[in-house]
Fold this sequence. Notes:
- Keywords: Membrane, Transmembrane, Transmembrane helix.
- This is Magnesium transporter.
- The chain has 2 domains: 22-40 and 49-63 and 137-169, Alpha-Beta Plaits (2-Layer Sandwich), CATH 3.30.70; 69-129, no CATH class.
- It is built from 5 helices and 3 strands.
- The chain has helices at residues 6-17, 31-43, 70-95, 100-124, 151-161; strands at 23-28, 51-67, 131-146.
- Helix 3 runs antiparallel to helix 4.
- The longest helix has 26 residues, at 70-95.
- It is elongated and about 70 Å long.
- The model is unreliable at 170-175 (pLDDT under 50).
Amino acid sequence: MVQPDPQRRNSAVLRERRRPSGWPVGSFSTYEQAQAAVDMLSDKEFPVNEISIVGVDLIEVENVTGRLTWAKVLLSGAASGAWMGVFIGLLLGIFGEGWLSPLLTGILMGVIFGTIMAAVPYAASQGRRDFTSSTTIVAGRYDVICTPQRAREARDLIAASGIATARHFTGEEGA
Length: 175
């Protein structure tokens, strides 16, 4: 059995955590366009391990998804508690005598504890956050960068592919 090389694995982890370096070979307004460019390079058997997609001009966007009320908080807590109770009740039922009694007990206890666990933080907020939301990170653009040795080739392949780019890089950046 072949053992993984710890030196190689650690270098891959370190490479992922470092700020990416290389020469820009294309800039795209959406991640999907940048991904399509890298996919095209892969289809042309370009060594894509020399490519990185870098999100530039990052912003955090919080989309408000709804109003939060006591009824929603209590119902949500009860529902999530009930699901946890189903799980615990089924586990107890599998390893014990009978399954209906542990299941019903688990659901009831889950509803009680879930409701309490949802109500306490909401009450503590004293109405300062009466809405639900989801947060995402969005980039203003996505740059595809490549190692200097292969940047010119990557840039030319992307330019010839017809994938919509915000701009194509000329040789002035070093490629």
